[in-house]
Amino acid sequence: MSDERLVNPELTACEVHGMSRASFLLRGAMATGAVYGVAAVGPYVSSALAQSSSGGTGSNSAARMNASDAEILNFALTLEYLESDFYNVKAKQVGLSGQAKSYAKLFGEEESQHVEALTAAIKQLGGKPVAKPTFVFPANNEQTFLALASVLENTGVGAYNGAAPSLHSKQVLAEAGEIVQIEARHAAAIELLLGHTPTPNGGFDVPLTKAQVLAKAGPLIKA
């Protein structure tokens, strides 16, 4: 299939392992998102999320709100695991040099701090942090690494902005705000390395839905 027909051509190089229903749905989301864009991914994502949703309800409002916030933070934690692995592991395999190498080292340290902060916040809410998945990154040189970094960082910013209105705790919202500002600075730095504008969406960033985030990041998770 010609790349001219692909809305998200970077997804065509991704791998998803396993033959579970979740893996099948993830492959469907990857293929659909690559050709038609994130708007078409909703049915796949809805089905995938239905597999893992729990039916329990809390007996009081505070417990339910804490559980809701913990669920949102666990989704963010998965993205931070991904970014941490990308910079701390993949960056060492693709022969980065100069500023790209320096940024990868710095960003890797900061993404690890985000993992620690989110893990602590989830535990404080009474939740259980999700286990770290394994990942596969379709990058084999500096240029493809930076291109994927751009996707990941901008997706991370959109994910935090999209989830923020659903958070109940002002403290959790403030902590998420501290993280998203760093993610945005990472994104801007990567865009400048690529010769792009550091503010690709103009004066306002675009929040992303869970389906849109999964369309971008989901195929990188090795199921």
Task: Set out the fold topology.
Elements lengths: L20 H16 L5 H11 L8 H28 L9 H27 L9 E2 L6 H22 L6 H24 L16 H8 L3 E2 L1
Antiparallel strand pairs: 1-2
Helix pairs in contact: 1-2, 3-4, 3-5, 4-6, 5-6, 5-7
Description:
This protein has seven helices and two strands. The N terminus is likely disordered. The chain is an all-alpha fold and 223 residues long. It has a two-stranded antiparallel ribbon. It is globular. The longest helix is centred in the middle third of the chain and has 28 residues. α5 packs antiparallel against α7. The chain has one domain: Ferritin. It starts with 20 loop residues before the first helix and ends with a strand.
Order of strands in the sheet with the most strands? 1-2
Would you count the extended β strands for me? 2
The helix content, as a percent range, equals: 55-70%
What do the pLDDT scores average to? 83
Radius of gyration: 17 Å
Intertermini distance:
25 Å
Summarize, please.
With 223 residues, the chain is mostly helical. Helix content is 61%, strand content 2%.
Record keyword descriptors for this entry.
Ferritin; single chain; mainly alpha; globular; 223 residues
